[in-house]
Design a protein that fits this description.
The chain has about 400 residues and is α/β, with parallel strands linked by helices. The protein is built from 12 helices and 13 strands. It has 2 domains: about 240 residues, Periplasmic binding protein-like II (D-Maltodextrin-Binding Protein, domain 2); about 130 residues, D-Maltodextrin-Binding Protein, domain 2 (3-Layer(aba) Sandwich). The chain is about 30% helix and about 15% strand. Strands 1, 2, 3, 4, 5, 6, 7, 8, 9, 10, 11, 12 and 13 form a 13-stranded mixed beta sheet that branches.
Amino acid sequence: MVRRLSLLFVMLAVLSACGGQPATEAPTAAATDAPAAPTEAPAATDAPAATEAPAPTEAPAATEAATIAPEPTAAPPEASASGEVTVYTSRSEALFAPVVEAFNRQYPDIKVNVLSGSNGDLLAKIKEEAANPQADVFINSDTVSIAANSDVFQPNDSEAVQQVPVQFRADDDTWTALTLRGRVLMYNTDLVQPADLPQSIFDLTDPKWKGQFASTDSSGGAMMGHMVALRELVGEERLSEFIQGLVANETQWLGSSHTNVRNAVGNGEAQIGLVNHYYYYLSQAEGQPVGIHYFDDDFGLIVNSTNAGIIEGAKNLENAKLFVDFMLSEAGQQVFAEKNFEYPIMPGVPLAEGVEPLDERPIAEIALKTLGDQLEPTRALVQAAGLP
């Protein structure tokens, strides 16, 4: 088990989630009022934010919990902390709302403003606002895109960040991972027998899955993180051939939202789909006929991370640090684990019931946090091969 955890730490250097959010083409001001079904915001895209998004709004309490898990324990309120903090996030409103609620139980006098959107659009907005930053914290859903844009964040020397294993945070502490997520296959148990599932990810090009496999496309951050990892593990030629095979096999490309993928599998519109692991648990909690399958490739399980960075020039710096510290605290990590079925980045926080521990299988030995400069070349490669 120790050896497998070591593999995980080595792999997740860039890593340093599920979680589903309906993505919009440009960031839109959104309160964190949780919808009935969590969805995932689109991850990194090439498109700049051409228009100014509405001003962030205060995040109201979620109207529906993402799961039936008990409320995490929070520390007593900190009466001395007050003011506001503005958060830009590509995490879904439904999955992020419980974090804001738990933070406000501990810091009731800090107003949390939230702007939701895609990784690419929000990062473009942050860069446009560099001379007059409008946000304090950025929270995203894949490692490679935040590593590729670390210059818009400032180092965070808080004690909580220093406790995060070095494999899961930037070398200069400009960003840190919050949670981990494994890349897995979901399948419809009414349509597929476990014995028939592909053993290797490359078996997805088998004609037996023609028109029956669903995935996010190149606008999805987790998908692109996966492609960057595969490029590092198997090389450009094999990755290009793989994408060409998926295209020829009439893969259902469902935009940047994993929620689209998990719903397609749950509804029987696709027999199998590539997702982050926690989407299976979200679908299972909703009663969908789904199963989870781990590929048996020699390089092991590919994982990714959700992350947070404090924006350079943040106007509410101290509250921004409090917000990041809270997400790394036991109470914050419990929210991610119990509500969202994610893997906490901090040790000692129990997983949600039924979630398979990461140390039960080998993890791909790849340091994603060092591969930020490979994001755009990899995007160009897979798009040339036919990935939308």
